């Protein structure tokens, strides 16, 4: 009896240790997503605050600036014209410029009136081609692609699983090359992720050691080249198009590290 009382706590402790060793905690897959963004090619319209600030800078520049060569020449032309009208001063007519600053200004004004800005509407805009980054030149565009998540296919940022031995940035570079090919040129802005999102797999897709994915986003600027994967149906989307197409929670995580457009 005494022996049983002494050994019983030891047996319970051993069973507890064994049970902890046999049961493993559910694991999360480490995923790296890549946000490739094409910056605006044409300057977006100024908002009210920017317009007022522009006018202020222009006023300060005019007040503090020195006279230009054209303004000085224009003043000298006026003085010479007044001297020509009066008979009290001898003026060398050959020294007087035949083409005055006012004549040059009138010619420049006429040329400016005939100038027309080129259209910012591209062929991709006219055709509604979202696979071409040469569209919506005044807006930011983000590259998205259909990605298989379990049995579903969702349009999200290109992503892939982290492999042992890689850094997260190396995974991002590999994933982007696997999805888009080597022709697409981008510039990653950081060695660290800029965003995070996690989701659980459907019950049918869960395994003994994996119940979901933790996604670490990397941000890169589009530099040039084309996406080699037309069969994957890649699209370049604006901020509003992203909100309509991406899953709500996923879109919220993405919008947190993107610059907000004010127009």
Explain this structure to me?
This protein has 263 residues and is α+β, with helices and mostly antiparallel strands. It is elongated and about 110 Å long. It is built from eight helices and eight strands. Strands 1, 2, 3, 4, 5, 6, 7 and 8 form an eight-stranded mixed β-sheet that branches. The protein starts with a helix and ends in an 8-residue tail after the last helix. Mean pLDDT is 84; it is low at 10-15 and 17-23. Helix content is 39%, strand content 22%.
Short description:
The protein is of the alpha+beta class and 263 residues long. Helices cover 39% and strands 22% of the residues. Strands 1, 2, 3, 4, 5, 6, 7 and 8 form an 8-stranded mixed beta sheet that branches.
Pick out its properties.
8 strands; single chain; transit peptide; alpha+beta; 263 residues; eight-stranded mixed β-sheet; ribosomal protein; mitochondrion; Large ribosomal subunit protein mL46
Shape: elongated
Helix-and-strand structural type: alpha+beta
Helix content: 25-40%
Instruction: Give the amount of beta strand, in percent.
Output: 15-25%
Number of helices: 8
**Helix and strand element order:** HEHHHHEEEHEEEEHH
The average pLDDT value, as a whole number, equals 84
Q: How many individual β-strands?
A: 8
Query: CA-to-CA gap between the ends?
Result: 84 Å
Which residue ranges are poorly predicted, with pLDDT under 50 across at least 5 consecutive positions? 10-15, 17-23
Q: Tell me about the biggest sheet?
A: 8 strands, mixed
Radius of gyration: 34 Å
Organism: Papilio xuthus (Asian swallowtail butterfly)
Family: Belongs to the mitochondrion-specific ribosomal protein mL46 family.
Subcellular location: Mitochondrion
GO cellular component, one term: mitochondrial large ribosomal subunit
